[in-house]
């Protein structure tokens, strides 16, 4: 009996999906992908949905984390230039030269030691009366290295002992002006040389001129010096030992000094104007400094204890003068001006104004000297050319004279030959006449 083979049921034929079915599948697949990506981004579905108005699609990938140095894309980096200049300047250090001028006994050495908290005059000896009669002004330099909070300052103090101590003080100013000019000239020579990297600046940046408190105003000796120095250096007037005067006397003395300066057309150091963006405290401090000129100061190296507080002052039978008290002295104002606020401006004024004036004068003198030398060489060349022409003309004249003499001698020789010929003919005629007879 034959067994019938069972045939497998026919496979169902797959029909191509319709357009509506394909679109639904794609939409379903897209919704699944969008939900997965939104779950990765950690955002809400409402925020990641497609906006029908803008037609923008939400980000498919998370944004990378911004590095710490790339937080501000508008930041270039040149804002650190002040820090670079600061580090370089601190590494190199600073230099400042201060000249102190005034007669003996006005507290110059004490004030300098008080300003910079040092002792520059340990081994100083005061001359006696016999030595001071014929004493002349000389220059003494003392250098001190100071460091404060990592900033190094090389301070040079130029003292002028003997100024105003002699009986005849007419030429006391000459040593000061010569020293300032010598430093300018040395700097100009170094600047014009080949090695300009290691130039040492010994120019005087500020001159403290001490006025005695016992006078009614500036003396003629004071005016002579200030008049010759005010265009070469920054002059700051200081009334020494101001504790000899009360407040009214100090105010009147300052007014008379300023009036004498105005009458003699003398210009002291001019404070720079404050910028508009400066704070009110700095502007008020600047006004107080300007109103304190000339500074009435008291110096002291002695530490005293007053009411349980240590102060720098001077002990008197009637009390203690506190050097750092603004009611007693302008010492704090002078130190603030000289060291804290205007030291760099003093150096800039020396470089941009006083040294530039000296440099312009030197260049003008060099140019005039070169013009004079050029004119001299031109005159010498012209004179030598004229001399050569004169020598040539003299030779020609001598040759002409010789030619004239030769021509004259030739004429004379010709005349003599003619005479000899005539004489010979006459003799021959005579002989012929004798023969005929």
Short descriptors:
single chain; about 425 residues; alpha/beta; six-stranded mixed β-sheet; three-stranded antiparallel β-sheet; 9 strands; disordered N terminus
Question: Could you walk me through the main structural features you see in this protein, from its secondary elements to its overall organization?
Answer:
The protein is α/β, with parallel strands linked by helices. 50% of the residues lie in helices and 13% in strands. The chain contains eleven helices and nine strands. The strands form two sheets. The protein has a six-stranded mixed sheet, sandwiched between helices. Strands 7-8-9 form a three-stranded antiparallel sheet, with no helix packed on it. A hairpin with a 2-residue loop joins strand 7 (303-306) and strand 8. Helix 6 packs parallel to helix 7 and helix 10 crosses helix 11. The N and C termini lie far apart (218 Å). Residues 1-8, 11-30 and 36-67 have low confidence and may be disordered.
How is the secondary structure organized here?
Blueprint: H1 19-41, H2 45-48, H3 81-92, E1 94-101, H4 108-116, H5 129-133, E2 140-148, E3 151-159, H6 172-191, E4 206-211, H7 220-229, E5 235-239, H8 247-263, H9 280-291, E6 295-296, E7 303-306, E8 309-316, E9 319-322, H10 331-341, H11 343-436
Parallel strand pairs: 1-3, 1-4, 4-5, 5-6
Antiparallel strand pairs: 2-3, 7-8, 8-9
Helix pairs in contact: 6-7, 10-11
Largest sheet geometry = 6 strands, mixed
Helix content: 40-55%
Secondary structure tally, helices: 11
Order of helices and strands: HHHEHHEEHEHEHHEEEEHH
Low-confidence stretches: 1-8, 11-30, 36-67
Shape: elongated
Task: Report, as a whole number of angstroms, the end-to-end distance.
Answer: 218 Å
DSSP strand content: 5-15%
Mean pLDDT: 76
Q: Strand order within the widest sheet?
A: 2-3-1-4-5-6
Total beta strand runs: 9
């Amino acid at each position: 009996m034959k067994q019938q083979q069972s045939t497998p049921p026919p496979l169902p034929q797959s029909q191509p999906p319709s357009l509506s079915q394909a679109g639904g599948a794609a939409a379903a697949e897209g919704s699944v992908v969008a939900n997965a990506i939104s779950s990765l981004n950690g955002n809400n579905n409402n925020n990641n949905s497609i906006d029908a108005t803008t037609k923008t699609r939400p980000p498919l990938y998370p944004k990378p984390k911004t590095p710490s140095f790339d937080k501000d894309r508008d930041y270039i980096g040149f804002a650190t230039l002040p820090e670079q200049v600061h580090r370089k300047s601190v590494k190199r250090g600073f230099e400042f030269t201060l000249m102190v001028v005034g007669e003996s006994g006005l507290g110059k050495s004490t004030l300098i030691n008080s300003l910079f908290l040092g002792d520059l005059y340990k081994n100083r000896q005061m001359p006696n009366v016999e030595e001071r009669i014929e004493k002349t002004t000389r220059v003494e330099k003392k250098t001190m290295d100071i460091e404060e909070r990592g900033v190094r300052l090389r301070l040079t103090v130029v003292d002028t002992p003997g100024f105003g101590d002699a009986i005849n003080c007419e030429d006391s100013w000459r040593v000061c002006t010569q020293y300032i000019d010598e430093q300018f000239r040395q700097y100009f020579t170094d600047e014009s040389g080949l090695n300009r990297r290691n130039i040492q600046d010994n120019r005087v940046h500020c001159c403290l001129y001490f006025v005695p408190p016992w006078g009614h105003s500036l003396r003629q000796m004071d005016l002579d010096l200030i008049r010759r120095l005010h265009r070469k250096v920054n002059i700051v007037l200081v009334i020494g030992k101001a504790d000899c005067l009360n407040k009214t006397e100090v105010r009147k003395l300052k007014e008379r000094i300023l009036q004498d300066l105005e009458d003699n057309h003398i210009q002291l150091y001019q404070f720079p104007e404050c910028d508009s963006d400066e704070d009110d405290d700095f502007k008020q401090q600047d006004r107080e400094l300007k109103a304190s000129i000339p500074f009435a100061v008291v110096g002291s190296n002695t530490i005293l204890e007053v009411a349980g507080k240590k102060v720098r002052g001077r002990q008197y039978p009637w009390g203690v003068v506190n050097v750092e008290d603004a009611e007693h002295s302008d010492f704090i104002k002078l130190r603030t001006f000289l060291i804290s606020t205007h030291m760099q401006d003093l150096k800039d004024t020396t470089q941009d104004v006083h040294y530039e004036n000296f440099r312009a004068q030197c260049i003008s003198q060099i140019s005039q000297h070169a013009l004079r030398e050029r004119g001299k060489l031109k005159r010498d060349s012209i004179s030598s050319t004229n001399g050569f022409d004169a020598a040539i003309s003299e030779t020609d004249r001598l040759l002409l004279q010789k030619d004239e003499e030769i021509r004259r001698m030739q004429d004379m020789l010709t005349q003599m030959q003619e005479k000899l010929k005539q004489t010979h003919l006459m003799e021959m005629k005579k002989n012929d006449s004798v023969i005929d007879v």
